[in-house]
Every structure is written in C-alpha cells, then in structure tokens.
Write a structure and sequence with these properties.
The chain has helices at residues 19-31, 45-52, 68-76, 95-103, 116-168, 175-207, 212-218, 226-240, 260-276, 308-312, 322-325, 333-343; strands spanning 11-15, 35-39, 56-60, 86-90, 108-111, 222-225, 247-251, 255-258, 284-291, 294-301, 349-353, 357-364. It starts with 10 loop residues before the first strand and ends with a strand. The chain is an alpha/beta fold. It is elongated. Helix 3 (68-76) runs parallel beside helix 4 (95-103), helix 5 (116-168) packs antiparallel against helix 6 and helix 8 packs parallel to helix 9. Helix 3 links the parallel strand 3 (56-60) and strand 4 (86-90).
Length: 366
Amino acid sequence: MEKSTGKEAIKIILFEDDNNVKNSVMEILTSEGYSVLHFESDVNLHKMLDDIKPDLIISDVMMPVKSGIEIIKEIKLINRFKEVPFIFLTARSDNSDLREGMNLGADDFIVKPFKAKDLLRSVELRIKKSGLYKEKIDRFSKSVALSVPHELRTPLISLVGYSDLIIDDFDFLSDNDIREYVKRIKLSAARLHKVIEKFILYSNLLMIDLDEELKLRFLAKTEFDFSELLSRTAVSTSSEYNRYSDLSIEADSVTASLSEELLSYALIQIIDNAFKFSSSGTPVIVKGTSTKSGYEISIGDNGRGISSEQRKEIEAFHQFEREKLNQSGSGLGLAITNKALSFLGSKLSIESDLNKGTVCKFVIST
C-alpha cells in the first residue's frame, strides 16, 4: 500500500488557460500528493472559494475574460480568504502587471517555462508559511479563550455594578459616595483598557514575521537616549501605582538607533511587574549601564519573587498561584517582554528568590 504523505488534504486552485502549462502544473503537484483543482478565470470566485476552501492559489497573469490581477484583487476583498497564499505564473513580458500583483499581496511568482523543483519549492514554502500563520492564530485564540473571559469580566462587573448603584440609588447617595463610585469606575475602565491593549500588542508581536506592515512598524529604527526612555517609562509606571517615592533610577546617557517602540514595550512590562509584585514602601531600582557588550538594563524589586521551577514555566496567559494570591492579570507581561527583546537581539535574564525579590536584566547592543 502506498504511504500517504498527508498532502492530499492540501487543496490547490489553479487558474491557467494554456493546456500544456495546466497539465504540467497539475502533474507535478498531484504526483507529490497535492489535491489540485483547475478552474477557468471567469468562475464565480465567491462560490468556488466557499465550496473548496483552498490552501493555496496559483494563477497565470495574462488570461482571457479575467486576468490574474483581477482575480487577486477580488480575492483580497473577501476577508475570510484574503490570507490564502497566492502564486503567480508569469511570462517574462508580464513584468509591469506582475509588479502590480505583488503589490496587491501575491506571495511569489514563477517565470514560465519553469522547473518542477522551483514550483514545488515555492508551493512548499507558501504552504509552510500559511501553516505557521494558522498555527499561531489557533494557539493565540485558544489561549485568549481561556484567559480573556476572566480578565475582561472582572473590570466589566465593577463598571456595571457601580454604574447601577449610581443610577438606582442616586437620590440617596451623598456627593462623597458618588465621587467614590466614579473613582472606582475609572479604575476599572483603566484596568480594562490595559488588558485589551496587552492582548492586541501580544497578538501583533506574534504576527510580525508574517505581516510586512507590522514588521515595518515595529522594527523601524529611531534615535533616542536610553536614560531618557528609562526615566520616562519608570516615572510613568510608578505614578500608576502611586509609588514614585519607591522609585530609584540610575542611568548612563547613551544614544542608540533601534526600535524605541519595542524596547519601550519590554521596559513597561518589566517595570510594571516590579511594582505589581512588590509592596508599597519597598524600593524598585532601575539601572542603565554602558558596558563593553552594550547597554545593560536592570530592574530590581524586593517583592514576592518566583522559584527556579516557576521561571522555567513562564509563558503567556499563565500566572503562578493566581487563586492563592488573588492576583489579577493575564500573565502576558513577560511573554511580551521576551518577544520584543528577541526582535532586538536580546534576551531577558531573571534572578529571583521566593519572598526575597526579583532582578530582571538584559543587554542591548549599541
């Protein structure tokens, strides 16, 4: 019995008006186990896509009735199918149209006549990339499904509850009562906003490798001073916890050219955790030191700390002893930090002991 490759589950749509090319493509791909379906360019795209749900689309550029450019334009307008990988088959004379197609979101192009190995390599790469994209989306969706309900429900209950109190008992409440309820509503709204922003940020960081627009945004380099960024971030975060007097900053002034946005995200999460997991009246120490290997940043606190076993389990949407400590949060802070630092060529080092505190360090090349 012939061994299954698993590729038969991968469905590829082919648009090609040249019978020789069509037959060649179908023979090459079907011999590798792919399921290939050929359609004329004037097919009803919406119905075809809904019926087939393809994993990949291959299309000639120049065809009668409807061109490959028109096909990709139409597909990119259908949200549920706009991420399906798209490969152009093109003659050398199609360069201007091809450039337009690539700008519209095509993933690759293969010049005719082509070699079987070139076609297979392109198809395999696009299928693999699409699979990674789907895997990341699925993993993130499952994680969000477990964590989001609690993290959104808690501040929402507070928002609705205190709003109802004001509306239902307005005639019996004093000005001080109303002021106190409004303060609590504001705090819950701020917490809800913070949670949502974290989820959005983490999802964007997961997608950087698969989205050129996100890559351009997050990896864009700007010139800034490390000490100014450290001070600005630390002061702002300490103010959120009303603990400015607990903050200590020692930072060398060094100018750098890299993604200030990514570094800022990492710093915000680490400093926020330092205040969140330590008590008011205990120090949070932020240091920035110029060294031979780069700029070393250190954030330390005298909080509850974590064990060596727990450090190995750090991941998104996971918090330690949540029930015991009644700790809020999604566990995203360090996951965001690690992801942001990885794009900056750095890695977070955590030194921590239970009930003694934590020191987080990393070095940025300058």
